[in-house]
Amino acid sequence: MLGSRSASFQMLHHLSHRLPLMIAPKWLRNRIQPIGIDDVVYYLVRSASLPPEVDRAFDIGGPDVLTYSQMIQRYTRIARMRPRVIVPVPVFTPTLASYWVGLVTPIDAGLARPLVGSLVHEVVCGEHDIAEYIPDPPDGLVSFDDAAAEALAELED
User: Fold this and answer.
1) Which InterPro entries does the protein's record reference (predicted)?
2) Is residue 57 predicted with pLDDT exceeding 80?
3) Is 1 domain-assigned?
4) 76: pLDDT confidence band, cut at 50, 70 and 90?
5) pTM of the entire structure?
6) Where are the alpha helices (DSSP H) in 1-156?
């Protein structure tokens, strides 16, 4: 989820700003479908009016499918920073990576662990069934670039 106060955005922000060279787990190449906070709120508010017989989970994601490495590079471009050098290595476990995130960012290792652990798996919507009940936002889902730019602007204010 991309919002200025979301832990996932904070992790992306701090890693990008603090590490011009990253020795990173190879699973940073796994695909992710990040969603902007405004779109999450849009779906949550409207899901409160769903009929009681609609008792299930829905996949929600933004319009972009990216790797975490691509997210870092796009974020650095938005933040007007130099591209980051990311060197993938096979020996990083999620636990080791979460301790590293806890060390180089203000994100607590206990919070970093599930965030980093989720990167081991591809996190891409398997369906968009929610559209049967809740239409997409009138202006469409917010792109990664727009959500990241908005979150960065909020941080800078």
Assistant:
1) NAD(P)-bd_dom_sf (IPR036291)
2) yes
3) no
4) very high
5) 0.88
6) 7-18, 37-47, 68-78, 94-104, 109-118, 144-156
